[in-house]
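#lab-general

N.A. 3:47 PM
ok so I finally got the sequence cleaned up, no stray characters, all 655 residues accounted for. can someone with queue access submit it? mine expired

B.Y. 3:52 PM
send it over

N.A. 3:53 PM
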Amino acid sequence: MTKQERIKELVEILNKAGRAYYQESREIMSNFEYDALYDELVSLEQETGMVLANSPTINVGFEVLSELPKETHEKPMLSLDKTKEVDGLKSFLGDKEGLLSWKLDGLTIVLTYEDGKLVKAVTRGNGEIGEVVTNNAKTFKNIPLSVPYKGQLVLRGEAVIKYSDFERINEEIEDVDAKYKNPRNLCAGSVRQLSNKITAERNVNFFAFALVKADGVDFENSLEKQYKFLMEQGFQVVAYKRVDSENVQDKVLEYSKEIESFDVPSDGLVLIYDDIKYGESLGRTAKFPRNGIAFKWKDETAVTTLKEIEWSPSRTGLINPVAIFEPVELEGTTVSRASVHNISIVESLQLGIGDKIEVYKANMIIPQILENHTRSGKLIIPDTCPACGGQTEIRAVSEVKSLYCTNDKCVAKFIKKFTLFVSRDAMNIDGLSEETLDKFVGRGFIKEYADIYKLNRYEEEIVNMAGFGRKSYDNLIASVDKSRKVPIFKLIYSLGVPNIGVANAKVLCRSFGNDIDKVVNATEEELTAIDGVGEVMAKAYVAYFSDAYNMDALSNLLQEIQVEKPEEVPVDMDNAVAGKTFVITGSVNHFENRNQVKDVIEGLGGKVTGSVTAKTDYLINNDNMSTSSKNKKAKELGIPIITEEEFMDMANIER
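B.Y. 4:20 PM
back already:
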């Protein structure tokens, strides 16, 4: 391939990656890979003198695609030139001083204030044309809607979603494959929503990094003075350090340590001259202003040996390849595994067990494979799912090939079922978080409920798993063994029978004398005769226990556990709670939680339901003035709303 042909190929690859990044808020290659290809393109263009009209070295970005209104920026928003060497920062500074700050990884926004009020917010877009997101920006958590300065104020900053919020949002998404890949993608999607209600829920933060316009204010030719002015207006300015060529190396080192616990996504640093006029006098290239430079972390890499590929099934049937390699030290931590994401990447790296691979931490955080030095290409793609043994197939979606399990009843698709089974109100097994269950199911340790009680078969593998160890394993097995004796109502609740909560399970079991055979074989007629059980619930209940798959799983489970009948304590029905129906909402102060209140009510012969109806006798809520739906409904129906203390007086419980 000639140099000219390689230039054309690189332009096509980089533009495709840029289009995915700017238009679709997704990434098809890592920053490390993009930078390496970009640097190669720059070198070839300089060497040959050939620069294509659509080269990313002269085009800032891509035109955004959405229904949001567009607006042209008053001043073009250019990218910064970059370096991966501290010497490059020293050379840039010369005898000048500068401000070294985080290069935040989010979505750049331009804010405009008129007469002290926020009137406009526009995304960076392609650098010249952005999208108007004013209503969404007004929901950012730390943005001032009004400022003391009454002239026209224009500034730029980065909208970001912190790692802690990113993890919280992802935890609320049940579908593994629907989870967001990184905070930047989530932020971009959140800011560009057509409904600012969604933006508000995402906890977007804004960090100012550049003042564009504030007429009539003397900043004494200092960028730092501009930053302090913005702080006085109520903006959170990106954290910075004042540097010169003598101390810039030490400051970079300080940042490299801080990033390990930094909650805001960052993919490097930015250095800008403090002397504003000097920076402006340097002008700009077609793509870069010359008053600043970006520092990209020079990723620490290590060569290691690929030991295995762990094929991890998910709830949608997607089977994700994870590389397991000989442990290496990177950025101060021990790393032994990295996601390979899909079959396309497996093929591009030509992976094979025993290959020498080079690994790094993207942005010093996420382990990735940089290169495969052996490229044996001998990896065998499994034709059966490790979780259920069903057939697998490779499917191509948007030119990306991935492995899928074709079995509709693949156990990996029912992680939530196991999560409920081990929960506190069910079998109460500590040490089996949803993440751990994902791993155990993915490795084939758990295929049905009974397998949880046979985890000791995989003692060595579990002890050596990432995040585990001897102590964690021993604690898990002790918790599993402790759960072998279980009250019958907890067992029934743990099975995830449709519409059967803890309270319903107690009522049903009590109605059939806590006899497991009668409970399991109940008919629709018997069930609907029980107060509170309707036809829909009865049909779903009978259907569950009529399913051979469910009954086999229960039968195998009963061989591992001992079902206990709860001790029947005679209820003195001569009390104020007996025969009454309660709904509990809000927080409690005198009880451990609302479930404990429920236990007390049921122990006194009362009943607890989840919604307020005409049959409800009391709503327990410590906040009588709350505007919650339950309070509103109770007031509409004339149902008394009592506090926790009032309930305790009713139940004759000492405070």
